[in-house]
Amino acid sequence: MAPVAAALDILQGEQQCSLGYVLPTLTSLKTKLRNKDLQSTGSLRDSVLRGINTRFGHCFQDKEFIMAAVTHPRFKLSWLDDADARARCTQQLETAMRASASAADETSNTADGDDYSGRATVDNFFDFGDQTAEQSNAHLELLNDKDRDLSMLNRHQEVKQLFLRYNTALSSSAPVERLFSSGSLILSKRRNRLSDKLFETLLMLKINQQFM
Questions:
Q1: Contact between 158 and 100 (Cβ < 8 Å)
Q2: Do both 124 and 205 map to the same domain?
Q3: Minimal CA–CA distance to 22: which of 39, 32, 7, 33?
Q4: How many domains does the chain have?
Q5: Domain extent for 184
Q6: Statement to judge: residues 9 and 106 lie in one domain
Q7: Alpha-carbon Rg of the chain, whole angstroms?
Q8: In this structure, are 85 and 186 located in the same domain?
Q9: Where are the beta strands (DSSP E) in 40-142?
Q10: pLDDT tens digit string along 141-157?
Q11: Tens of pLDDT along 20-40?
Q12: pLDDT (tens digit, 9 = 90+) per residue, 43-101?
């Protein structure tokens, strides 16, 4: 069950705490479990797989989860092994980018107002979306970019806006649990007469010792 433990560490981590990690992590977990040649614990493996499909099966059809994974530079479409699924996700990315661009244009036109007396506003009135072809290819530029670092989003501003929208941070209780564990080590049986202020000072020093 090492893959299960590794998946839990990833999803409960503090560094990779975005929604885009959910589907790739679950996909990799299911693949690793299926490839395990288990004899005595095969039934346990099958039960875990059924539990994953029952609990998280709907996430693989949810647009929020799909877009979060596809717009993440580390994954893009690499977690999909089915050609039809890749084509479907690519189409969803293109549609989302067009919708985002249309929303931005509507906001810009609203800010310009309805006065068509000036040259600039007249040009806006006769804007028939000449950038549609350029926008439709922007998603391909992202998918063809081999860079896996988050900084690559600075080269794809349209995708960056989608990444910021869908990759919300996942809440994690790990830091709080570590804080309680450290507190129990400080407030031991031999140090049960610590004042509140001294206990808080010792706890803060222990937690923040990496910065000292």
A1: yes
A2: no
A3: 7
A4: 2
A5: 174-211
A6: yes
A7: 25
A8: no
A9: none
A10: 778 888 888 888 888 88
A11: 999 999 999 998 888 877 677
A12: 888 898 999 999 999 999 999 999 999 999 888 888 988 889 889 998 888 888 888 77
Residue with tokens 């309805």: 114
If one counts every other C-beta atom within 10 angstroms of the C-beta of residue 156, the result is 20
Contact 160, 139 (CB under 8 A): no
Mean pLDDT score of the chain: 80
Query: What's the predicted TM-score (pTM) here?
Result: 0.66
- In degrees rounded to 5, what are phi and psi of residue 145? -75, 125
Q: Is the separation of the CB atoms in 18 and 170 below 8 Å?
A: yes
Up-side HSE of residue 121: CA atoms within 13 Å toward CB? 9
Q: Could you tell me how many residues make up the chain?
A: 212
Please tell me whether residues 200 and 162 are part of one structural domain.
no
One domain, residues 58 and 81:
yes
Neighbours of 79 (CB within 10 A): 21
85 and 188 share one domain: no
